[in-house]
Amino acid sequence: MREALRAEWTKLRTVSTTGWLLLGTIVLTVALGAVVAHAVTYSAGGREDVTKLSLTGVYIGQAIVAILAVQTISAEYSCGLIHVTLVAIPRRPVVLGAKAAILCALVLAAGALAMLGSVLAGRLILPGSGFTIAHGYAPLSLGHGATLRATAGSVLYLALIALLSLGVGTAVREAAVAIGLVLGLLYVFPIIAAVIGGSRLQRHVEQIAPMTAGLAIQDTVNLGHLPISPWAGLGVLAAWATAALLAGGLMLKLRDA
Amino acid sequence: MSAIAREDFAQLVHAEWTKFRTVRGWVIGTVLAGLVIVLFAYLATFAHHDGGLCVGPNPSSGTCQSFSHPGPAIGPGGLPVTDTYYLVHRTLTGDGTITARIDSLTGEAQTGGGGGNGVSVQDLVGAPAAVNEWAKAGLIVAASTRPGAAYAAVMLTGRHGVRMQSDYTGDIAGPDVSALKPRWLRLKRSGPTLTGYASVDGRGWTKVGTARLAGLRGAVQAGLFVTSPPATDLNSPQFFGGEGGANQDATGATATFDRLELHGGWSPAGWSAQDIGANTQLPTLSSVGYQRTDGGLRISGSGDIAPAVAAGYTDEQPLTGVFVGLIFLIVLATMFITAEYRRGLILTTLAATPRRGHVLLAKASVLAAVTFAVGSIACAVSIAIGNHILRVNGNYVYPTSTLTELRVILGTGALLAAVAVLALAVGTALRRSAAAITAVIVLIILPYILATASALPTGPSDWLLRLTPAAGFAIEQTLPEYHQVSYLYDPTGGFYPLAPGLGLAVLGAYALLALLIARRLLLTRDA
Fold first, then answer.
1. For chain B, is the Cβ count within 10 Å smaller at the N or the C terminus?
2. End-to-end CA distance of chain A
3. Which among A78, A184, A212 is the nearest to B240, CB-wise?
């Protein structure tokens, strides 16, 4: 396993796109969060979830993470490297496990930077948008339990998205199809939920959809209105990621490379 | 292009069409994209039921035997209207004039908030409040007292001065006398023509406007009316994935009229009073009515006489699948070029046709034609199926003209084609399918989600739908906006910040720009 980990680490480390994609995740996430924090305006009476607004960047960050995760496996197929990898490490689940571990570590690190940056940006920018102490909004702080949960949860969310994408990428091999599937899974469900009608059906869709359920972790106010509780929502996403990894692992094991 | 170049290009298009047609995955993918659009027309409509009002209760079992689906009142133009007001009227046969002075116009508002959009709130009692900006008090001539009847009215509004309005959509601003008291109004009927006048002293009169109502013949109902539309709570929070629209709180208005003068063919019978359109879906106050005062009348009303905004379902509902179809087409269009790079086919293609720019153009033409055709057909079928299901389930579907319907269908086809070309261009520029597909999806679908289904406020949401390729979705908007109706016209409710054609042009500009950049890169880079 140690050799496998090292091999995967070397592969990811020495490809320049890895660094660019991780950097892109951080920059785009913080940038979107900052723009949103700047664009919102305080209005009396409302109770804005400023933590969630500051962490909006995860919507775009997850897409970059998905590229990285899908490419980790699909690039091996497209240039034939997978044959070398599997000759070197014949135990295929170990290969996938090593990839998952390295990817997870990288995304957790980048995600942590991205989320901390977003919270910091929110803390600096939000008072300028009117969300001041005088209006009943304390500055964003990780000392606040719900904010800490939302921030740490968003980092975990990104890691789970990476695992989900890796699983899908392993199962379908073709990068284009895999990324289409992952982004479809993430972005289409909220649209379905918005139009499907019938409040119970709508709630069920929001409870099982990977993005709507997973991002419940970001909510800090009005938790009673959520279709699913924050940690349970992240659990739903974890279930999706596990299922995708299992499917990917199974396909890898059963199929000729 | 010379004749030879034209022939070359035709051959290129033929070559690209052959590549497309003979790869099973691409044909299947395109057909799937079309099918998925239609499938979602069903998904987005089947669960929408309007139970309707029970009109045939079975007393023995306590169940309902028959339901009625009243829907909104329909105005003379065939569009849904709001027609809820308090009327004190007489019958007018032939020509005549009515003149009155409005001494005061005061407002009241629903206490305690609540009352969601589209929820009928009939039993609310109001508390004194500022008069609503579109509260209306004045003189009206209506074909009948049926909601949706043809009418013309001259009125004083809460904050928009004197207006002459007719048949729900007509609105002419009069001289601004709102700050001056007292205010005099006069409405004159001669045949089908109605003319409104306003005055500050009852002697010098200014014409406000004229309306010709084709349907106004013989005896009409004319008199004094008061109404006040619900206040839209522009700051109400929107939750992720929630239904669009802000909360609406019922308001009421009370006006005192005196110096009433009638000339012409008025019925000798006295005044009668009526709460018009009381069974409305609009939140209204229950404290309406009238009382005689010293030399005049005090009338309280709640509701509106205006076009109904966002009534019922629109074509956007059955077209939900376009988002899913888009993802299919983005993947396909990107692979149409990246697969050539992956398999090395690009070398053969470029060896066969050294004019690289033309290769890209040929690919774009084939893709655009195929996606436009498949997309338009899928949209036409989706709208037909989806609207049918909605109607069968008892829902009201907002009426659209054939021309608008055609614009939505062909426009959505063009939207799909433009996105396919954009994906092809980004794929050519980046040469990596995963990055290209993500870039295009993030450019077009993510802004739409952020604007309509996230916690973003209306301001930033509008900018997202102006500046990003997601502006193209404006082509699907069929609901008109009315300046005389205060409503939260935001993307969540299906109102786009750009006009349909302009929105599509923004998307087209992105596609064209991407195509030019891709061409440049293709020409200057080694394959």
1. N
2. 20
3. A212
State the greatest distance between any 2 C-alpha atoms of chain A, in Å, as a whole number: 65
3-state DSSP: chain A helix, strand, coil percent, rounded to 5? 80, 0, 20
The 3-class secondary structure across B64-75, one letter per residue, is ECCEECCCCEEC
Chain A partners within 8 Å of B242 (Cβ):
194
Which of A42-73 are b and which e, b meaning 16 or more Cβ less than 10 Å from the residue's Cβ?
Answer: beeeeebbbbbbbbbbbbbbbbbbbbbbbbbb
**Beta strand segments in A100-192, E:** none
- Can you tell me the distance from the alpha carbon of B490 to that of B235, in angstroms, rounded to the nearest whole number? 12
Q: Out of A18-22, B356-360, B385-389, pick the least confident.
A: B356-360
ipTM of the complex: 0.88
DSSP state of B44: T
Closest C-alpha among A79, A220, A226, A33 to residue A138: A220
Whole-number average pLDDT of chain A: 89
Q: What is the average per-residue pLDDT within A6-24?
A: 86
- CA-to-CA distance for B478 and B493, rounded, in angstroms? 12
Q: How far is CA A79 from CA A72, A75, A92, B263, B341, in A?
A: 12, 6, 18, 92, 12
Nearest Cα residue in chain B from A70: B434
- What's the fold here for domain B73-307? Jelly Rolls (2.60.120)
Residue in the block written with tokens 């010709």: B212
Q: Which residues pair with A167 in a beta bridge?
A: none
Task: Tell me the H-state helices in B229-344.
Answer: 321-343
* Cα dihedral A16/A21/A23/A27 (nearest 10): 150
